[in-house]
User: Fold this.
Amino acid sequence: MDVSASSTPKTMFRWVQKLYNALGFKKGYNFILSAAFLAFFQFVPAIRYKVILFHRINGYTIILLVLLSNVGALMIARHTFGGTIPTQAAVGLLVILSTCAIGMAYYNVKRLQLEQHRAWMLRAFFYLLNRWDVSSPRA
Ligand code: HEM
Assistant:
């Protein structure tokens, strides 16, 4: 066995590529679909009032999935819908908008401004639904 070959940059690159393919980064919808599904429960008042801890854990899971899905979207921006410059610009803008909206929502909940927390999460998900559409791996 050629020991040196296992630590070459090329081998490392292949290994990383395998990992992110397995995680589904390139598919573009794995993370965002799961986040959208979980987000539904965040808007149900009964869950929010009775199981506050669920809202917290679910909330942090959603934020993580959203950020990962934004990374995936940036990765496929050059290929999606033909990968034209306007498409790449749209994906980039929506990634920035959704990340900032999530940031604002987090800042607001920490300052106990709950109406603003809710409003920014809603905005974030409208941006994300657009981003999901524009960065779907078709064409
Ligand atoms: C996708 C939608 C949402 C996400 C991802 C989300 C995420 C989160 C997270 C991560 C926290 C914990 C913050 C901390 O550590 O202090 C939190 C807290 C909170 N959220 Fe949301 N949230 C969402 C929607 C909503 C909505 C629609 C409301 C309704 C007004 C709401 C009300 C609250 C309240 C009252 C808390 C404080 C609960 C506590 O003390 O732990 N959230 N949210």
